[in-house]
Design a protein that fits this description.
Elements lengths: L1 E6 L8 E8 L2 E4 L3 E2 L3 H9 L6 E5 L6 H11 L11 H9 L2 H10 L11 H17 L13 E3 L2 H7 L8 H7 L3 E2 L2 H9 L1 H17 L10 H8 L22
Parallel strand pairs: 1-5, 3-7, 5-6
Antiparallel strand pairs: 1-2, 2-3, 2-4
Helix pairs in contact: 6-9, 8-9
Length: 248
């Protein structure tokens, strides 16, 4: 199986992809692909084969409270926050349910896709997701089905005890089964975007083998619209190399 990680940005220059090929008890890391265009990203995602999984470092949607408010404003309807305390209403529109959960579980605070420039990256993903749907491979924003999931590398590093810094030495010491040449290692050390794509590819593996939490109960409805960050369980990095059955 292969896992692909994509660190998505507004600009192609800052967009990177990483591919890991998984074998029994070990995995091989390919040279990163940087400066990825929409065409290249769509080719990667449409060429996933059974057993493959992709992790995208980008919000798959916006907070429901935010989209409802924008819709009301566009249609000259009453603003949903009318009569509410401004600060409370602002906070309600700022983060998705999955962002709140990630902060609660990992301690890492995600950026706001509604009130930060991250929204421009989400718009690029919305374009790519629509192109995938038009090609017959729609993306489930919750990641419960399909081969594409939303990930957050900074939180994944925390859950795996890799520290706050992007450090190949720390990663390879914690995961000695992850094989790469000196040239490939240098390429990941030289680019923070490539390194984030690598963590995204590892997180995609965790999602594929059931080591990330899925939305439950009322969370499912939010996740289908807002997206759902697949956060690895604490201390599961070592389990990635030989975790058992991979989802179809």
């Amino acid at each position: 199986m292969r896992t692909i990680g994509i660190d998505l940005a507004v600009a192609d220059l800052n967009t990177a992809a990483a591919t890991i090929t998984w074998h029994e008890h070990r995995a091989t890391l390919d040279h990163p692909h940087t400066g990825c265009t929409d065409t290249e990203l769509l080719r990667l995602l449409t060429n996933l084969t059974p057993g493959d999984q992709a992790g995208i470092d980008c919000p798959f949607g916006w907070p429901i409270t935010f989209t409802r408010a924008v819709h009301a404003h566009a249609h000259l309807q009453p603003w949903p926050g009318r009569g509410l305390d401004h600060r409370s209403h602002y906070q309600a529109m700022r983060l998705r349910l999955t962002d709140q959960r990630v902060h609660r579980v990992s301690g890492v605070r995600p950026l706001s896709v509604s009130f930060d420039k991250l929204g421009a990256v989400a718009a690029r993903w919305a374009y790519l997701a629509d192109a995938l749907a038009a090609a017959g491979t729609p993306v489930d924003r919750s990641g419960v089905t399909g081969r594409v999931v939303e990930v957050y590398p900074a939180a994944s590093r925390t859950m795996w005890g890799l520290g706050k810094n992007r450090d190949m030495a720390v990663l390879l010491d914690a995961a000695p089964w992850l094989e790469c040449s000196a040239q490939v290692r240098h390429a990941y050390e030289a680019s923070e975007h490539a390194f984030d794509a690598l963590i995204a590819a590892l997180t995609a593996r965790a999602a594929a083998v059931g080591l990330t939490a899925l939305p439950e109960g009322e969370e499912a409805g939010f996740a289908r619209e807002e997206g759902w960050i697949h956060l690895p369980e604490h201390g599961t990095l070592e389990a990635l190399k030989d975790p058992g059955p991979v989802k179809d």
